[in-house]
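2024-03-11 09:14:02 INFO receiving multi-entity request
2024-03-11 09:14:02 INFO entity count = two
2024-03-11 09:14:03 INFO echoing inputs for audit
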Amino acid sequence: MKETTFEQEWPANYPPSCPPEDAAPTGGDVYRFVGNDPPKPDDMRSWLELGLGKGRDCQRAALSCSLTREHLEEVRRAVPTRRSDRIARATLSVEHGKLAQTGALGHHSLWLRHRFHSSIHRLFEVVE
Amino acid sequence: MKTSWNLPEARMAIEALAERVVEVVLVEFDGPQIVVVWGPGGSRRLAIACDEDETAVRWLEAELSASQWGRLFDGLLSLRDALLQPRVWIVDQTHSGKALHGWECSSADLAVEILPEVGALLPTAVRQQFAGGPSVAPVELSERDAAVARGFPTLARMVA
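2024-03-11 09:21:47 INFO inference complete, emitting structure
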């Protein structure tokens, strides 16, 4: 008899109905601030994992990212606490997860499927 | 904090800090980075995350004139110049947004490390989102509360 295994699609700490229905499949380049080159798992911790912030758990479970490198360059020049951060890029495909613009323009939330969650740092490469 | 600070001994009353309300987040990345807050007495302030450690984020806040708000959102006023007002406030908040401490000080006492880079503007996407800038006409407290509840663009329409 063939044994079947159940693999959960999204991380266990995501609340129900997360990612939201209007989130789009990933596809293409995304950019994220990181503190290490090459990026480490600690660079990919969500606010929910870190126990920080307040508000909706689904959004706090996501990783902040941008669709353009230029936006993060502008943020880095503008925000003193980001000045020493590096900008890393990952080229994602539909299998990796979902993405939605959240908050102010230029900011996106990235929800990763469970099977990529612990290794996502390997997909990012520091570009600046 | 990561930067060495020389803050006044006198701290703001915690009651005054409790009155602070974030009206809109202009820039965020793993949490708010640049926001508009309502300060004590109903004054609208530009606030930027300027330092942090494991327990708190330190915010630099300044009140802007109506003309300065407009120029900031039009990309004609840099963030650094906007924040270098004669009187500024430093506020420590937990990463969950609870105000801990606050100081009133002079911008002349601020280290350059805690300021935006020279010439840095609000990011292009943010200026496009708030094209024309928010109305900064004085508003009554009830309007303020409604605006906070409904969001920043609503405020712009309400008081325009």
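2024-03-11 09:21:48 INFO post-check: The first helix of chain B runs from residue 14 to 18.
2024-03-11 09:21:48 INFO post-check: The two ends of chain B are 40 Å apart (CA to CA).
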